[in-house]
Amino acid sequence: MLPVSVLQGERFVYHEGWGERLNTRSAPVLCMLDIKSSSVSVLESVPEHVSPGQALWSPGDTGVVFVGWWHEPFRLGLSACSNRRSGIFHLELASGHCELLSAPNRASFSPRLSPDGQHLLYLEGAVGGPHRQCLQLRLLTWQMRQTVTVLDVVQEPTGSESSFTGIYTDALPPQCWAADCRRALLCTPQRSRTDLLLVDTETATVTNLTAGSPEGCWELLTIQWDLLVATCSAPHRPPSLVMAELPPLGQELPLRWVPVEDTPPVPGITWKTLTVQQNSSPHNPQPFEALLLSPTGGTTPHPLVVCPHGGPHAVFDARWRPSMAALCWLGFTVLLVNYRGSLGFGQASIECLQSRVGEQDVADTQLAVEQALRYESLDPHRVALLAGSHGAFIALHLLTRQPERYQACALRNPVSNLPALLGTSDIPDWRYTSLGLPYSFQRVPRVEDLVVMLQRSPIIQAPRVRAPVLLCVGARDRRVSPTQALELYRVLRAHRVPTRLLWYPEGGHALTGVEMEADVFGNCARWFLQHLGRPPVGQHGP
């Protein structure tokens, strides 16, 4: 028999989830496991208007500290979105009293308690606006319930390459406190790197422990008794496991890293950071960066694969990416573009993209391409685009505006029709915010809104596409509906553009999983080899 609740008509009631990657998560609960009795109990007194998570024991184990995300009035996607209203709560087990510790109208998350239980460190940002932003580092004194800002939002970093550019990580390391309960460590993008930073919470100063290192991406795994365990990698070097002892306060540099499992660089690949200077825009006329990965050896210019990242508020840091290294081994040079609006370059850079998507990001990417073609040994007649999500949105615009420049294109879950995403995406607010339009939960589409969105959509210029297009689509994508790619596929086919669509029934927005990722890469690589021709093989190539 069916449960009584089902018989009463509740079997098909819709339960709202938290969007991409969290679609089946609707109303999580906090549970406590008693390892002696092997019993599990659900903690009561969590406010009904929030979904709890990221829980940890409070000082003395008398309560639980957790993050609560507001439901009001409906849930928006959480994945890759640090701008959702959330707070740090403390639930006292004996009394059931639940207290909000952080500001009521902010996005507060990732709490980390100091070893002595005296301080609680957490990240905080603005609600609404860009989905990823520069964050504050906040410190709460437990007994006094006083909160101070240790590190504030950085609007525009100073000119020095080693200067602190702000915090952009989505979480602090699970173990981040030094033994002195004064210093803390975190990893965050700093321009086109991800560096390990040491923060003195009393003086509010930052020391970059990895600036200038040949590895472009550092990730702290843990710190125990001031012993650091981390991984480091670079575009030509897979991750290596390293350790270091944190010196006393004020003596942190230079930090001596000891390899535990050292991974040698992959032969046949070189990389560098390009600085792209643009002077034509009055809005944040700061330079931006791109990473260039190149095969070594040979005298024939290589074909170029251009990759603008998705997000759009994300970043290509100088880490190991097997697919990009594999393209180099096939003989392609790869350009990873961090156009203005990318993380790691200051809050002003993030905000300057608002209302200019489809224009500024497209122009920046094209400028990076032209600079690379001008100064590097590349074949200007064999250039391809490889991108996903908002990066695919940029790529489609480039195909329509520079049809003679690009000879092939491979896209993953592309954004092509902005107004069509309003009712299908888990982040409808982004459709407004990205174009500089105000958003509220009560807002309904207006004719003028839809006109602006459609004018910025590459679908209306799709008949100008000439390059062959490969589409890789996840059927379970909640962020960018797969109908975007289906519509684009039909338009391109109708205009006799060579087009192929790969449909992954279990694929989400990121198309993750060993089998799926391998299939996507294999098809993209074959697509480029088919339409660009086989590149010259370097001295280390296959």
From TrEMBL:
- Asked if the keyword Transferase belongs to this entry, the reply reads no
GO CC, one annotated term: cytoplasm
So what EC number does this one have? 3.4.19.1
For this entry, list what GO says about its biological process: proteolysis
* UniProt keyword terms in alphabetical order: Cytoplasm, Hydrolase
Pinpoint the Acylamino-acid-releasing enzyme N-terminal domain residues. 14-246
Q: Which InterPro entries match?
A: 6-blade_b-propeller_TolB-like, AARE_N, AB_hydrolase_fold, Peptidase_S9_cat
Q: Quote the protein name from its UniProt record.
A: Acylamino-acid-releasing enzyme
The UniProt family comment states:
Belongs to the peptidase S9C family.
Whose protein is this, by species?
Gallus gallus
